[in-house]
Write a structure and sequence with these properties.
The structure holds 2 protein chains of 2 kinds. Chain A is mainly alpha-helical. Chain A has 2 helices and no strands. By secondary structure, chain B is mainly β. Chain B has one domain: monomeric porin ompg (Porin, Beta Barrel), CATH 2.40.160. The chains are: A mainly alpha, B mainly beta.
Chain lengths: 68, 386
């Protein structure tokens, strides 16, 4: 698994075409954002963390809650 | 202060920064502060299915219902600063699994907490962010207060773009101090008063792959120290520290036909309690004209059980737990989001269904009788002051 992830990282980082600043209009669209809806993502992450044993991965963990 | 002829106007600077020097790491952290103030409101209804009578002593029982309201404000402050305020209120009621017993035929059955548990939670989060030429840095404070749980957390994060803007390097650290004081009365509790601390660090890199695609990778480490036992479970005794690692990746690809974007995210999680998990999120953001987006989404999750999990806890062991959340199971959830813009307003609606089953996971283990399924609905309104 670790080797596969490392391979993917290397391939993705090396295999990119150069995109000039004026060619990045599509990447600025709302539907291309990492978090298109921050409130929705935040609520979903909180629910998942309170019903499953895993959390995190997209930033530092922050505080806890007594959510059961 | 009057602008000199050579100075860029802040609005122009923001526009050129966002349009021409688009960083590889986008989303809530861009290179320029927001041009306009934005506010948003959400109401969400969360409803867990009743426990099945065949898996419960005492027949079917109602589980948690939660009403949640969210408020979001994002505003530019001065030339290079922005402030965000998020407030969330929750009102929850229902019963929770208390312990698991063995029925006459030998199958495990759950005993619920009986009387309905009532609780409220208020969370306030304030973030200030400074934007500089090739990135930004933020400071965040979060306070969460419940009847039986208080948490104070701070976080620092930052990102910097490569000179060509193709790659963005990001990092974040956080610390929290949590106090637990279980509500007495409904069930006996494992502690009267306890605390725990959480420390976390994350690094990430994102990269523009093509004119229409972007990829990211992240690595996080979280250390929890203190009272990690569930205070309301009858047979629950967990280690007082936990070390967690998560590796994540994400991909966004835009398709001119049919004018939509694919979102794919994956996370692998591992910890020193013996839990490992895989999470795969997929979403399709379909544009319908200029004002409407329809977003179907699907999520698959599978986790291994903790080393000390058993349906019928062996209390002779040093650590033990019957908590279904530490069992091996798979979960599939899916739903639909709708966003429609009318002038400066935007309306959002979300419906989601989440279901679990031990046989759906890639890991095998004892099936807990307390696995949870739920429905969630959200409705929201956003406004931008421009």
């Amino acid at each position: 698994m670790k080797q596969l992830i490392c391979l993917c990282v290397v391939l993705c980082l090396c295999g990119c075409e150069t995109v000039q600043p004026w060619e990045r209009g599509t990447l600025a669209k709302r539907e291309m954002q990492w978090q298109a809806d921050a409130m929705e993502i935040s609520l979903q992450a909180q629910i998942n963390a309170s019903k499953e044993a895993s959390s995190g991965g997209q930033g530092a963990a922050g505080g806890g809650c007594g959510c059961n | 202060m009057a602008s000199r002829p050579g100075d860029k106007h802040p609005a122009l600077l923001a526009l050129t920064s966002s349009a021409l020097l688009l960083p590889a790491y986008q989303g809530v952290r861009a290179d320029a502060p927001p041009e306009f103030t934005e506010i948003g409101l959400r109401y969400s209804k969360y409803e867990e299915d009743d426990t099945q009578g065949s898996k419960t002593f005492g027949g079917s029982s109602q589980r948690y219902d939660i009403d949640a309201a969210q408020f979001h404000l994002l505003a530019p402050v001065a030339d290079n600063w922005a402030v965000a305020v998020d407030v969330q209120w929750e009102d929850m009621s229902g019963a929770s699994p208390w312990f698991v017993g063995e029925s006459l035929d030998g199958s495990p059955k759950v005993i619920m907490s009986g009387a309905s548990i009532e609780d409220t939670r208020t969370e306030v989060s304030v973030t200030t962010r400074y934007y500089y030429d090739r990135g930004n840095a933020g400071f965040n404070y979060v306070r969460s207060k419940e009847d039986d749980y208080d948490s104070d957390a701070i976080a620092l994060d930052g990102s910097v773009n490569s000179a060509d803007g193709m790659t963005t390097y990001s990092g974040a650290i956080s610390a929290s101090s949590d106090d637990i004081e279980p509500t007495q009365g409904s069930v006996p509790t494992n502690t009267i008063k306890a605390d725990k601390d959480i420390r976390s660090a994350w690094v990430g890199v994102s990269r523009i792959v093509s004119k229409n695609a972007i990829v990211r990778f992240g690595l996080s480490y979280t250390y929890r120290d203190g009272f990690l036992t569930d205070p309301y479970k009858l047979y629950d005794q967990r280690p007082d520290e936990r070390k967690e690692w998560a590796v994540s990746t994400g991909y966004r690809q835009y398709f001119f036909w049919p004018n939509g974007a694919l979102h794919a995210d994956y996370r692998y999680f591992d910890d020193d309690w013996g839990i490992a998990s895989h999470t795969l999120d997929l979403a399709w953001h379909q544009n319908l004209g200029n004002d409407t987006q329809l977003i179907p989404f699907l999520r698959y999750y599978s986790q291994d059980e903790a080393d000390f999990f058993a349906n019928i806890a062996n209390t002779d062991q040093r650590y033990y737990s019957e908590d279904y959340r530490l069992s091996a199971f798979g979960a599939v959830s899916g739903g639909l989001r709708l966003r429609h813009t009318i002038g400066n307003w935007a309306i959002t609606a979300v419906g989601e269904r989440y279901e679990t089953d031990e046989s759906w996971g890639v890991y095998s283990g004892e099936e807990s009788p307390a696995l949870v399924d739920y429905w969630r609905y959200s409705f929201g309104l956003d406004y931008i002051f421009k």
